[in-house]
């Protein structure tokens, strides 16, 4: 059954199609596994394991989330961007949802995302993938493709040499209008 899932998952091209397969097939796999485990150890024992993993998972996510939040705050106080911590926070949210969702497969993935050994590695890979996608897609004005030297050269140009954009503006906030004086 898992081989069929992986084969089908590889041949779906769109992200929406992959998500559909994930949400359609994952519950079937979870129910199948819960039934098999229930047959082996009993239904109530299986339910107890699912409930205990949900509570332990919630506790673990809370603990790791607070640690990640403290690290992010320390980085921001030092003036650094906490990108790694933001990615880890996102992974902890996903882990929390997976750990609270009944089932053994989601619990395994939730624990993998929650562990302090694996989470930073997954977050780095996630950030690396996001940076590559942003750079490849470019921006509206094309600045993502510029080299550092091109950017510095353009930012050091004399304003008289560059384009000057003239225009008019209108203040719509009444409190600002009343505070303005006409020049003498």
Largest sheet: none
What is the residue-averaged pLDDT? 76
Which structural class do you get from the secondary structure elements? mainly alpha
Radius of gyration: 26 Å
Number of domains: 2
Ranges with pLDDT <50 over ≥5 residues?
A: 138-147
Alpha carbon gap, first and last residue: 83 Å
β-strand percent reads: under 5%
Shape: elongated
Helix content: over 70%
The total strand number stands at 0
Order of helices and strands: HHHHHHHH
Q: Give me the number of helical elements.
A: 8
Tell me what the structure shows.
The chain is mainly alpha-helical and 184 residues long. The chain has two domains: 1-41, no CATH class; 43-135, no CATH class. Helices cover 72% and strands 0% of the residues. Helix 3 (43-77) packs parallel to helix 5. The radius of gyration is 26 Å and the shape is elongated.
């Amino acid at each position: 059954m898992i081989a069929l899932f992986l084969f089908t998952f590889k041949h779906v091209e769109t992200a929406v199609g992959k998500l559909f397969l994930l949400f359609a097939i994952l519950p079937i796999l979870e129910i199948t596994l819960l039934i098999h485990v229930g047959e082996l150890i009993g239904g109530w024992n299986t339910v107890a394991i699912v409930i205990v993993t949900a509570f332990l998972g919630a506790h673990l996510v809370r603990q790791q989330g607070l640690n990640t939040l403290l690290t992010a705050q320390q980085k921001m106080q030092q003036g650094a961007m906490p990108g790694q911590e933001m990615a880890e926070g996102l992974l902890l949210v996903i882990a929390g949802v997976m750990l609270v969702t009944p089932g053994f497969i989601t619990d395994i993935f939730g624990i993998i995302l929650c562990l302090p050994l694996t989470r930073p590695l997954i977050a780095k890979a996630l950030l690396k993938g996001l940076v590559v996608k942003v750079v490849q897609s470019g921006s509206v004005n094309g600045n993502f493709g510029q080299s550092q030297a091109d950017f510095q050269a353009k930012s050091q140009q004399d304003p008289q040499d560059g384009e000057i954009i003239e225009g008019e503006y209108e203040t719509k906030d009444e409190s600002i209008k009343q505070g303005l004086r006409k020049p003498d």
